[in-house]
Each structure stands twice: as C-alpha cells, then as structure tokens.
Specification:
- The complex is a heterodimer of chains A (about 230) and B (about 725).
- Chain A has one domain: Alpha-Beta Plaits (2-Layer Sandwich).
- Chain A has six helices and 14 strands.
- A three-stranded mixed sheet of chain A has the order 1-2-3.
- Chain A starts with a strand and ends in a 6-residue tail after the last helix.
- With about 725 residues, chain B is of the alpha+beta class.
- Chain B has three domains: about 220 residues, Aldehyde ferredoxin oxidoreductase, N-terminal domain (Aldehyde Ferredoxin Oxidoreductase,  A, domain 1, 4-Layer Sandwich), CATH 3.60.9; about 150 residues, Aldehyde Ferredoxin Oxidoreductase Protein, subunit A, domain 2 (Orthogonal Bundle); about 240 residues, Aldehyde Ferredoxin Oxidoreductase Protein, subunit A, domain 3, CATH 1.10.599.
- In chain B, about 35% of the residues lie in helices and about 15% in strands.
- Chain B contains 26 helices and 21 strands.
- The longest helix of chain B is centred in the C-terminal third of the chain and has 22 residues.
- Classes of the chains: A alpha+beta (about 230), B alpha+beta (about 725).
- Chains A and B meet through helix 2, strand 5, strand 6, strand 7 and helix 5 of A and helix 3, strand 13, helix 6, strand 14 and helix 9 of B.
- Strand 5 of chain A pairs antiparallel with strand 13 of chain B.
Chain lengths: ~230, ~725
C-alpha cells in the first residue's frame, strides 16, 4: 500500500512551547483533513517513520440529542471493569444545568484519530494500533509506564486518554474489544456498550472515516421522531 | 456489600465533628428511607422536639441502586427529619430529590449523610471523596446567595484554576474528573426559616415538602457539595446489563416509533417511560433538549435555548397559571400547538405569536424565581388562589382586614409573584404569616376553621395543599392522612386515568374491567386474591379491601419506592402499553435489578414485607411525636362538600356480581364510615384500633421490640385487646 509521508507533523505535548513542530489543535484538524483525503485515495497516514493504518470504526455522538443521563459512562466503565466509575469511563459527558441549550451538554468520545497523537507520543509502545482488531487505538496496560505523555498529547479537551490514578496507567476507548463484564463481543465489528445502552440513540457507530469539524464529527442523529417530540433537528 | 459503599457520613454541626457510621449496621433496612428512619430513631432520643431544634437529625440516604444502571432507580436520594410544614403537628417526614447528587455521593464513597446539631455560623460541607470539610460560608460569601449563585460559586471554588469540561483534580488522591460537583443548596427562604422553604439541586431538582430548607437554615447549613471519583461495586455486571436491555426491549416503545397515542401513554406517571417527553405545564419552546436524572432512560425535564425554566417539571411549571381568561386562553393555544406538533402538523406562526403575546414565558420565569429563592411550589399552587379568593371576598387587600399591598391587578404577571416572594422573604406584612405556610397563615388570620369548612383553603390533609382529591383518589387521600405528608405517589393513577382517557377518546378501555383489576391486584402480595382492592366505586370506599389497598401501597412505597429508590414517575409499572398483554414490569423488575446490583436474593414479597416493617417504624415515631387515632381525620370540607370532578374518573367496579367501569368524581367522604375504615385498617396492621398505636406483639414480630420498649416507656404502646370493634 502506498504511504503518504507527513514528516513535518511531529506529535508533541499540548503543553510544549509554541513551535513549528507542535501538534496544535488547528494543525491537528488541518492534518486530519488532509489525511482523510489521503486515506480516501488509498493512502495510509504516516507520522515520521510510523505508519498508522486507519481504524475500522468510529463512534459518532450527537451532542444536541444527549439528555445528560450519563448512561453511556455507566455502561462503559461497567463493561470494561465490572464496576461503575465516572472517572474511568472512556466517554465523558459534561453538562451545566444553568447553561443555554445547546451549550449545556457535551459528549466527548475518543476519535480513533487517523493521525493518533497519543500513539505517536507513547515511548513504550503501550499505546498502539491494534492491527489484529480493526486498527483500534488501544493501550496495552502491561507496557504502560504511567508517563502520561499520551494524556497530554491528545489534542482534544478533555483528553480522551483516561488516567487511572490508582493503577497509574492510561486507559482509552477500545471500541469495547476488552469488555469482559457483559455478554457481547465488541470491537469494530461487534457491539459497543455506549451505543447499545444510550437511551436517546445519540451515539452511533460508523466504519467510514467521519467528517471533522472544530467541535467534533459532523453528526446529526435527530430524526423524524425527534421532530415529533418537538425537539429541533437542524 | 455490593451496591453500598460501606459507610455513612455523620456530621455534627454543633461540634464541627465528622465521623462515620458503618453501613452494615443498617443494611437490613435496604437503603434509603428504611435506613434513614432507623438512624433517626436511634439518634433522636426525644421525638417530641420541633423541627428547628438543633437536636433534630436530618438523614440524606442513597440506595444500593443509586449511581447504577438499575432502570429508573439510579438517581434518587431520600431526605428525612422532623419537618415544619404539616398541621397541627409537623410530623417526622420525608422528601426525595433526583438529579445526580445521590450518584455523586456514592462515587465519593458514601451511602448517606447524617446531619446533627446546629452551627453557630453559616457553613457549607465540602465532600471530595474521603476528604470532608465543614467550611464557613463567609469564605465565599455564600450566605444570602440564591441557589444558583451558591452552586456556581462552589463549582468555581472546587475547580480552582481548572475549568469544567477538562479533567480537573480536586482531590489529594490524584483522581480526576470532568464533572461539576453535585450541590444541595438552600436559598434565602431557607436561611430566613420560611417554613415552606425547599432544598434545591442543580436547576430543577427540589426537596419541597416538609420545609426542609428551613431545617437547614436553623442548622446554619447553606449547602452540601460532593464530587466523587471512586467505584460503585456491582455484584453481577452481566446480569445488570441484561436486566437493563430486557426492560428496554420488553417494557418500552422504541424511540423511533413515537406517535401521538404512544406519547400520551408512555409518558404517563407510573408507567416506565419510553420517550423523553417533558412533564411540564407550559408550551415548550422548540429550541430545547430533554434532560434526565442520572441513569434514566427517558428524561422528564428540559433545558432551553434561553435557559429560563431549565430542568423544572411538574408542580413548579404549573403553579402559576389560570388566573385570568387570557392565561387560560394562552394555555389552550399552547396545547393546540403541542397537539398539532405531536400529530406531525406544524403549528402556524400566528398561533406561536399569539401564545407568546398572551403568556410570554411568565411560567418559566415563575419557576426560576421559586427555584432560586428555594420555595415549595406546591404551597403556592393552592396558596395563591386562596389569596385571590380572599381578595375577591374583600377580606384581603389594601386597607382590608388582612392588609396587604400585593398587586392583584398583576396576578398572573411576574410582578405579582415577585412581590409575593419579596414580602415572604422579608417577613413583611402578611408575608410574616405566609412564611409559616398558608394553613398557619389562615389560622393567624382567624379564618382556618371557616375556610377549611368551605374548602376555600384547599388544604385537604395535615394542612397541606390538596394534590389528588381524597374523595376520589382513595389510596392517595387515605395514605396521606394515615401518614405524614401528601404522599405524591402516582402508583394507582393509571387505574383511573387510563379508563377515563380511553373512554373520552372513544376507543374505550383496553381491557375488560375485571381483567384490568386483576392486572393490578394479582401482583399485590400478600393480598393478591382480592381484586376489589381497586374497586373505587361508592359502595366500596370504606371496605376491608380498600384497607388492604392502602396497606399494600404504603408498604410498596416505603421499600421499593422510598428505600430502594425506584422513581415514582415510573414505578410501580402495573399497566404498560408497550408490554405483552399490557403486563408491566412491576413484581419482576424491581427485585431483578436489586439482586443484580446487591447479589442478594430478595423477592418482590420480601420487599413488601420490609416496607411493612419500615411503615411500622415510621408510625411508631409519629405516635411518639403525639399521634392518636382521633387526630387522623380530614378537614370538614372533605366530608361536607362534594368533589368537583363530575364523574370524569373511570374505575373498574364490582356491581351486582359483575365488573364494569363506572364514573366517579362527585362525592364526599362520610365521617362515620371513614372512622369505621380506620378501625379496619388498624386491625389489618395489628395496631390498637382505639388509639392507632402499634402493639408490642406486632412490633416484635417485625424485629422491632426495641421500638415497643420506647413506646411503652412513653405510655404509648397499643393495647392488644383493642383489636376489634363493632362495625
């Protein structure tokens, strides 16, 4: 497979001094767009000497459809760890009850980035592209040394890398590949706990690389039923 | 101890002392109300104290299911203390709150909070996992703030230099969270000991009944903030997942299948909710989203594009309307628009414009005013019409016997409400009287007896505003007068709502009357063989069957609803439009979720029996406070005037050997027959029929011998020989 060299793009920490090699949010989005085009042309993105085959699946969230129940967070931690813990959910919902709609609630999920800064920043290879499981960006916790470089490398706020302070290691969305606490097979070709249990159907899954905007993937899951209930669909 | 965190936070504000109670010591009560009553009984030695006494103890309890995926049971907390609102005696009482406080408390590692004593200076409690501090309000100038300002100030303090939406690290442990702390706060009403003051959480969650806001005010407690980053352990995660998916697939309509009919049924109280349709009594602006309590599958509140009225639902959205023809017309227009929307026909811009001109967001602003002030909407719902009627009678107004400058020409406008709240908070003029609640205000004005005789003051039980009419909704009225507060439990509403609405719509009830009755009563263990429990017809109003209904209802609610904390708007789910044969989840669902989380083997009947134990403990506390059978009666107008519902309620009824649906709605209660009913009820509970006091044998059979000891010391143990009477 031909590869596209993006050698100028050097993943770096969000906290690094402003330099031409920093992966800023704006640069990240710009490069993501280029990579998507490249991928569309059958090209695998490469950072430095590292090749990043694209992930075979992506979570899509429609933040205007979220009701803030946090069922997705409950389902995520329970499926992965057999217990509820908001701080360990790989998808986060943040809300302000006094804010105006639609700025009152946001769902924030791992993008399985085409150019995964978290993977590129990992010095031990713990954060890796799992080629055996649909190229999902995953953490091999046995290799994680707790340096948190992946946490700061993630260009999004909040970082989609979840820090497990007790175990001192990083965790992230694996599209439910490793979910021993429910009776389903996960991964790109399987079921995802957050998608399955979201009562609003505000989380979807796609195998196509989604179009990105500054606020997330461009997603509208609000259908005719949403309109019948009197909620906006635009 | 799956489901529980294992410890309860105990805070003595008088001594600024923080300690813990081992949850295991109270786990037999199953969480929530049961635990709260048991702790209250143990810690409050003199049950005759007033609500404002520093010795009054408030418990704020979660359940094993709080913070979990248990269907419709993930969010609620149960608050209990001796209250301030009921008349003549403010009973030991309860109030619940949804939202996310309970879940956050569990994630912080606490099954509940016990508040004792009173601080000398205003304080707030800062809980960050294990780290608990009692902080002076002066640091943040919290005392005097409204509930929104208070919460936002605490959020900013906890976040420090961080900002929500990013990971913050508010804890020494290094754990991180993206979440805002969950805060319970009182407003100016609570601080000023207004006896109809509430406790507010987030934007629209309120502990309204009981005047608990003033209890906090007396303790100089402004707020409790909690942020949690820990675990809630679940006994069988796979079983919990499967139970959740089973409930969704078997007992709710798919979200994309909504139509007008399903919307009506699947959002009715005490049906598992299928759709996130808000329970609001105003026309919802289109730029909105549904908003749900923690873990709920279908939110019943909204947030709006202008944020006005965010998260308010039910009472607080409907208490301020219908005062003028213009308001009633606006409501009709709003309902027309909503109906046109629901059947897929877009309302016209002219209708929208008309609505906005007639009632420009007044109701939503009104909701925000009382949420920010921390005032109970239920009191205003009946209290404001009382003021209006007194004004029309020429009794109340400028220069009248009851002198006030309230601008009645602005009734229905925001100006009137703002002035009313102002005079109450400042205890200015009649505001000093209303600060005691409308029943006590009527007493101060020398009108209580007169206005309860006519019903001008529509407070139908314990001086509390009527919710459902006890002359029609027997389980509601009887349950309330035998208890401590407006029960606000919608368990049997569908029993008379579904036949009524289907008859009105022309389709007729979905099941023959006898099958409909059995659909309910077949699961009402241990009385399941008596379908006449749900026969609300005139001939059956005072029967032993209805006594069983009331007993079952109290037991179900005390455990499954108030202790395990299943949401009132969804449980019990007897009749369910989405379920096979209309048979709802109740009976099977509650224990399935409870056992998946806790790993126990509790049956539905076990829960009902535990509810009986809790109900007996509560009744013992009321008796120790001073309750006697003679006090358990409705005001005169419930006996002497007829209910004005013109046969609009339809119920299954057994007549001349056959079951049929009959209209009820225009009737009164009979004093003598209600007294006979009380005797039947007390006998059923094993209590002294002459006093209503529990007997030692009944209490001991429930493992409550120590409660009998205390009653006996007070000379209030029931006489076992008074278990029968002539009817």
């Amino acid at each position: 497979m031909p590869s596209a060299s993006i050698s100028a793009l050097t993943p770096a920490h969000k906290g690094c001094a402003a330099s031409s090699t920093c992966l800023t949010r704006r640069n990240f989005l710009k490069w993501s767009g280029i990579v998507i085009i490249a991928v569309g042309a059958g090209v695998s993105p490469v950072v430095g000497r590292t090749r990043f085959p694209i992930c075979h699946g992506y979570l899509l969230v429609d933040t205007k459809k979220c009701q803030g129940c946090m069922t997705c967070m409950l389902a995520c931690a329970l499926a992965h760890e057999g217990k509820h813990n908001l701080s360990r959910a790989r998808i986060q919902v943040v809300q302000n009850p006094f804010e105006k709609y639609p700025d009152d609630t946001f769902q924030m999920q791992c993008r399985q980035c085409v150019v995964p800064a978290c993977v590129a920043s990992c010095p031990t290879g713990a954060l890796h592209v799992d080629t055996a499981s649909g190229n999902v960006r995953r953490v091999d916790t046995s290799l994680c040394n707790g340096c948190e470089q992946c946490v700061t490398a993630c260009p999004y706020t909040p970082s989609r890398i979840v820090w497990n302070a007790a175990a001192r290691l990083s965790q992230k969305c694996d599209l439910c590949i490793n979910t021993p606490y429910w009776n389903e097979t996960g991964g790109p070709s399987g079921k995802k706990a957050c998608v399955e249990l979201c009562p609003m159907k505000a989380i979807a899954f796609t195998t196509q690389v989604p179009e990105q905007t500054d606020t997330g993937y461009r997603t509208n899951l609000r259908d005719k039923s949403w309109a019948i209930m009197g909620y906006p669909t635009d | 101890m799956n489901g529980y965190t294992g410890k309860i936070l105990r805070i003595n504000l008088s001594r600024a002392a923080i300690s813990t109670i081992d949850t295991a010591a109270y786990a037999q009560w199953g969480g929530g109300h049961g635990m709260g009553s048991a702790i209250f009984f143990d810690l409050v030695k003199d049950k005759t104290i007033t609500g404002l006494d520093p010795s009054n103890v408030m418990t704020i309890m979660t359940s094993p299911l709080t913070g979990t995926l248990a269907f419709g049971a993930g969010s609620r907390i149960e608050l209990q203390a001796i209250g301030l609102q009921a008349y003549p005696l403010p009973w030991f009482t309860r109030s619940g709150i949804g939202g996310r406080f309970g879940a956050m408390l569990k994630f912080a590692g606490w099954d509940g909070i016990v508040i004792e004593g009173a601080s000398d200076v205003p304080v707030w409690i800062d809980i960050r996992d294990e780290d608990v501090r009692i902080r002076p309000c002066s640091e943040l100038s919290l005392w005097g703030m409204d509930t929104v300002q208070c919460q936002e100030t605490i959020w900013a303090f906890i976040a420090g230099g961080s900002r929500y939406g990013d990971w913050i690290q508010p804890l020494k442990s290094g754990n991180r969270t993206t979440q805002r702390p969950a805060v319970l706060a009182i407003g100016p009403a609570g601080e000023r000991l207004i006896k109809i003051a509430s406790i507010i959480h987030d934007s629209g969650n309120a502990s309204g009944q009981g005047g608990f806001g003033a209890i906090w005010g007396a303790k100089k407690l402004k707020a409790i903030s909690v942020i949690g980053t820990g675990d809630i352990l679940v006994a069988d995660p796979k079983a919990l997942f499967e139970a959740r998916r089973w409930a969704i697939s078997q007992y709710t309509f798919p979200l994309d299948s909504i139509d007008a009919t399903k919307s009506m049924w699947a959002t009715m109280p005490s049906n598992l909710r299928s759709f996130p349709m808000p329970l609001v009594f105003w026309k919802r602006p289109p730029d909105s989203r549904p908003q749900a309590c923690f873990g709920c599958q279908a939110g019943c509140r909204c947030r709006y594009g202008d944020a006005i009225g965010n998260e308010s639902s039910c009472k607080e959205t409907g208490f301020y309307q219908f005062y003028k023809l213009r308001h009633m017309a606006a409501n009709a227009v709003g309902n027309t628009i909503a109906f046109l929307d629901s059947i897929g026909k877009k309302s016209t811009a002219i209708l929208d414009e008309l609505y906005e001109r007639m009632l420009p967001i007044t109701q939503r602003r009104a909701a925000d005013i009382i949420q920010r002030s921390g005032i109970n909407a239920g009191e205003f719902e009946k209290g404001i019409p009382y003021l209006r009627d007194l004004n029309k009678l020429g009794v109340l107004g400028p220069g009248k016997d009851i002198d006030t400058d309230l601008p009645f020409d602005k009734l229905g406008e925001i100006e009137f409400l703002e002035r009313l709240v102002e005079i109450i908070l400042n205890r200015e003029g009649i505001g000093e009287d209303i600060a005691e609640g409308f029943t006590r205000a009527a007493e101060r004005w020398g009108r209580l007896e007169k206005d309860l005789k006519t019903g001008l003051l529509n407070c139908s039980y314990w001086g509390l505003p009527m919710h459902y009419d006890p002359r029609v909704s027997l389980e509601w009225g009887y349950g309330t007068i035998l208890g401590d507060r407006d029960i606000n439990e919608h368990c049997f509403n569908p029993l008379y709502m579904i036949p009524m609405i289907t008859t009105f719509m022309g389709s007729g009830p979905p099941l023959p009357a006898e099958e409909f009755a059995h659909l309910y009563t077949d699961r009402m263990v241990p009385f399941q063989n008596d379908p006449r429990m749900v026969d609300f017809s005139d001939d059956n109003m005072y029967s032993e069957s209805v006594a069983k209904l009331v007993a079952w209802h109290r037991r179900y609610s005390r455990f499954w609803k108030h202790s395990a904390l299943f949401c009132d708007l969804q449980y019990p789910d007897f009749f369910n439009w989405a379920a096979p044969d209309y048979k709802g989840i109740t009976g099977e669902g509650e224990p399935r979720f409870f056992n998946a989380v806790t790993g126990t083997a509790m049956s539905f009947a076990d829960g009902i029996e535990l509810g009986r134990k809790i109900w007996n403990l509560d009744n013992a506390i009321w008796v120790l406070q001073g309750r006697h059978r003679d006090m358990v009666k409705f005001p005169d107008y419930i006996y002497d005037t007829t209910s004005p519902w013109w046969g609009t309620f339809h119920c299954p009824a057994y007549r001349d050997g056959t079951w049929e649906y009959v209209p009820i709605g225009t009737r009164s209660l009979d004093r003598e027959k209600f007294e006979q009913f009380k005797t039947l009820y007390y006998r059923l509970e094993g209590w002294d029929t002459t006093t209503g006091w529990p007997t030692r044998s009944t209490l001991e059979s429930l493992g409550l011998g120590y409660v009998a000891d205390e009653l006996e010391r007070d000379g209030k143990i029931g006489n076992p020989n008074n278990g029968s009477c002539e009817l």
